[in-house]
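Before relying on records like the one below, remember that each one covers exactly one chain. Contacts with other chains, cofactors or solvent are not represented anywhere in the record.
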Amino acid sequence: MLNLRALSFERMMAALPGWLFVFAAMSLLGMTLLTPQWLSCRELMWQAKVMQAQTGRLEMMQGRYEAYLQALEMGDLTVYEQLAYTELSLKPTGKDIFFVAQELYDQERLDDSQMMSAIERQLDVSLDVIGHEVAPYEPVNSRLVRMTTKPKSRYLLMGMGLICLFLGVWPQGVKPEED
């Protein structure tokens, strides 16, 4: 009986080409091993975009501070008047108050900026770029991702790939020579 099963298995294996199993094995092992790395690479690329946008904002803020410092060094009277009004509460006699347009801050930003001086609030730039310059990160949600990232199904797919690889290299139709 055992011999009959072995013969039927050999017949079935002889009908299927070995390259088909090797191709299936490489596909299963490849998707199991490469999909998690592809996902982490995708997330790192998104983080790089966020950091580039934040770097641009920091350069803009540095430019504002440099322009303000240059105005102070050149002795710009309006900057000194603004500084005296905001920091020392002194108003020049016979002149109107000089206001610089400030960006509108959202409520969270107001809570953080209350600790800053008026000049810092004017020169500060928000580093919150997610949703403004960079789209929020959207993780891939597909059956392939779920199957290759869960440990149990990952091991199952790797086992199936190894079985397919074994069946692909199984000697087919080779009969021992009789002397």
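Residues 31-139 form one domain.
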